[in-house]
User: What shape does this take?
Amino acid sequence: MMKRMLLGALLLSAGSAMMAQESRQDISVSAIGVWQPQVNGNGSQLNASMTMGGLVSYRYLVTPRSGLELNYSFSQYTDYFRTSFTRPAVHVRQQEITGAYVYSRNYGNYNPFVEVGVGGYILSPIRDFGTSSLDTKQNTNIGALFGGGLAYELSPSWDLRLEYRAFVLKAPNFGLDAVATRRYTVISTPAVGFAYHF
Assistant: This one.
């Protein structure tokens, strides 16, 4: 009886040690580029300046290949509207809050992955010299996130992560109905950063 109890305790401690070594969570910090195509519609044209920003992600692996991810990104850029009568500019603070499903594979130190999800973009006008209209209002747009990338394992705890991310949403008008395109746009945010597994 004593041998069985000792064997059971040994198996439990070995199982706990193996579970402790399996890292199912990671947090990553990345630099992102923000690029948007020109949007035309309803007699209006929208162009946005290219910029850089930051992305923080938390990923939890439900299985070795499937995970859930929460994302927050931040950037600032300028939207330029153009119609026959007016050309307002809006200096924008963009914040992304999204959740995604992530599917990944392992090939040695290389871990390719794809992701798809939903979330919101909070687009807030900044009242400074970059904004030419005082009538602008915040836009909160719901949309879809998709992307894919590659994680390269630097050590059991650290990855270098490269990815292409994009978000589909309705083009903002910041409450300026005269410049509304009434079209959808894709905001591309390629990212490079580091992930820490725990």
Summary: Residues 22 and 198 are 8 Å apart (CA to CA).
